[in-house]
Amino acid sequence: MTTEAGSGPARLEVRGLEVVFGGVRAVDGVSMDVAPGTIVGLIGANGSGKTTLLDAVSGLVPLAGGTVTIDGEDVADLLPEERATLGIVRSFQEARLFPELTVEDALLVTVDGRGQSDVVSTTLQLPWARRSERDKRRAVAEVLGSFRLERFRLHQIAQLSTGTRRMVDLASIVLAGPRLLLLDEPTAGIAQREAEAFVPLLRRLQAVTGATVLLVEHDVPLVFELCHTVVVMQAGTIVSSGPAEVVRRDPRALEAYLGASEEALLASGPLASAPPGDQRGGLAGP
Ligand SMILES: Nc1ncnc2c1ncn2[C@@H]1O[C@H](COP(=O)(O)OP(=O)(O)OP(=O)(O)O)[C@@H](O)[C@H]1O
Ligand SMILES: [Mg+2]
Q1: Interval 59-87: pLDDT, tens
Q2: Which residue, by CA, sits nearest to atom 4 of ligand 1?
Q3: Nearest CA to ligand 1 atom 25
Q4: Which residues make Cβ contacts (< 8 Å) with residue 258, sequence separation at least 6?
Q5: What are residue 41's DSSP bridge partners?
Q6: Could you tell me the distance, in angstroms and rounded to a whole number, from the CA of residue 171 to the centre of ligand 1?
Q7: Does residue 208 belong to any structural domain of this protein?
Q8: Which one of 45, 130, 160, 233 is CB 3.0 to 4.6 Å from 165, fit for a cystine?
Q9: Residue 280 clears pLDDT 60, i.e. is over it
Q10: Backbone angles phi, psi at 14, to 5 degrees
Q11: Ligand 2 center to 50 CA (angstroms)
């Protein structure tokens, strides 16, 4: 699938980023690089600043300091919709699709750029928006096919499981033609069994869009399985980052998670009740 702005996956560079809400330093001097075409996982306890970092990259919160550059261009002065023209596409912690629409209609609405919240519709780049009705339907059919969602085509969004609804949400992102995808907890609220389907799904999302991906996720095993690089945040700062295999064994990463999410740790450690043959690892490592 092609994009209209720029070409190929984007490069994201963040330097000394600070975001302050009143007395809270939500992001406190973060620097990170996301190389073109890679999937970088961002993990950390609740309130560690992950969503705020995505908000800062997409232009939804003002910076108290630091820089965000896309392909070497400082985007500080660009509004969210202007950043969208560079191919920055953002998903949210809560999926936002019209519950009364069918899957097909919900995706057509996305293609048209109507019906979502202002933030979403302005943040989406919508390369299909000017295409003919037939082309739009063809694009939607193509996306449904590549995400194996054809059988849900005429189902109402409200009748889908949370997991399937989130898959449709991800499918809708493809239609925005992203070059940099910022995903905020795509598996939130999904049962572990359903969440496992997201590893191949997210791989397909990257393959189909060719985008660079920055993924915020509480499902630690999923992050370590999927991501080339993992970044661990704690209290607005980065406490560990690097190749998944290195971060997995980093005591600082483990500590940042220990106090944070017993559930995630159990899911990733030796106590995990994973089925036999489940190769998914986590911070605790093998
Ligand atoms: N709009 C806001 N106004 C005031 N404080 C905020 C706002 N948004 C976030 N914060 C605070 O900033 C800090 C970082 O929040 P953020 O939502 O970025 O964390 P997070 O890592 O995404 O957490 P979670 O894993 O629970 O989604 C928290 O202390 C939070 O309470
Ligand atoms: Mg968050």
Answers
A1: 999 999 999 999 999 999 999 888 888 88
A2: 21
A3: 46
A4: 265
A5: 215, 230
A6: 27
A7: yes
A8: 160
A9: no
A10: -120, 130
A11: 6
Please tell me the residue having the least CA distance from ligand 1 atom 8. 52
Q: Are 58 and 123 in contact (CB under 8 A)?
A: yes
Spatial CA neighbour of 208 closest among 174, 236, 162, 242 = 174
- Give 109 Cα–ligand 1 centroid separation in angstroms: 30
Lowest-confidence pick of 109-113, 249-253, 265-269:
265-269
Identify the DSSP state of 157.
G
In a domain, 109, yes or no: no
Ligand closest to 52 (CA) is 1
**Average pLDDT value for residue range 111-122:** 46
Which atom belonging to ligand 1 lies closest to the Cα atom of 51? 22
Q: Helix, strand, or coil here: 110? A: helix
- Residue 141: count of CB within 10 angstroms of its CB: 14
User: Two tokens at 225?
Assistant: 């399985």
Laid out side by side, the sheet with 65-70 consists of 24-34, 12-21, 65-70, 73-74
Range of the domain at 228: 12-100+177-268
Ligand nearest to C-alpha 28? 1
Local structure of residue 9 (DSSP, 8 states): -
48 domain residue, yes or no? yes
Mapped onto helix, strand or coil, the DSSP state of residue 200 is helix
pLDDT of residue 19: 98
Question: In this structure, what are the phi and psi dihedrals at residue 42, rounded to the nearest 5 degrees?
Answer: -120, 115
Torsion 102-96-181-189 (CA) sign? negative
Is 77 strand, coil or helix?
coil
| Among the listed residues 56, 59, 53, 52, the one whose alpha carbon sits nearest the alpha carbon of residue 78 | 59
Q: Would 105 be classed as within a structural domain?
A: no
Sequence length of the chain is: 286
Q: What is the CA angle 154-156-119, rounded to 5?
A: 115
Q: How many domains in the chain?
A: 1
**Residue 34: both structure tokens together:** 């996301």
CATH code of 243's domain: 3.40.50.300
